[in-house]
Write a structure and sequence with these properties.
- It is a single chain.
- The protein has no helices and eight strands.
- The chain has 109 residues and is an all-beta fold.
- The protein has a single domain, classed as Immunoglobulin-like (Sandwich).
- It holds the Pfam family SoxZ.
- InterPro entries: Ig-like_fold (IPR013783), Ig_E-set (IPR014756), SoxZ (IPR030995), SoxZ_dom (IPR014880).
């Protein structure tokens, strides 16, 4: 299963210094590698191992994941609005597949 759908929820505008709540979700099986299929064959491990967010080129959040994370990982975090720029959300799984979502943020005084 390829990485497919990722969604990010965040405001498009904020005041300088405002704390932003950001939510991100990706559809992914997060297969642990410990289960077997209906024929008793092991199901290969397939997990998202890293999630990172860059705000105007600077990394502001990173999370390394393990088999303990459930399918379709949902992540919520906060950051501070400092300047107008782009937030780049990147998920990478252990098969080398990468999904990127870009969101713009306009910061007012």
């Amino acid at each position: 299963m390829a990485l497919a759908q990722a969604r990010v929820s965040m405001p498009a505008e904020a005041r300088r210094g405002e704390i932003l709540e950001i939510k991100a979700l990706i559809r992914h099986p997060m297969e642990t590698g410990y289960r077997v299929d209906s024929r008793g064959q092991p199901i290969p491990r397939h997990i998202v191992r890293r999630f990172a967010v860059a705000y105007d080129g600077e990394e502001v959040f990173r999370m390394d994941m393990t088999q303990g994370v459930a399918a379709n990982p949902f992540i919520a975090f906060s950051t501070v609005a400092t300047r107008t720029g782009e937030l780049v959300f990147t998920w990478e799984d252990d098969r080398g597949e990468v999904v990127t979502v870009r969101k713009s943020l306009t910061v007012t005084e």
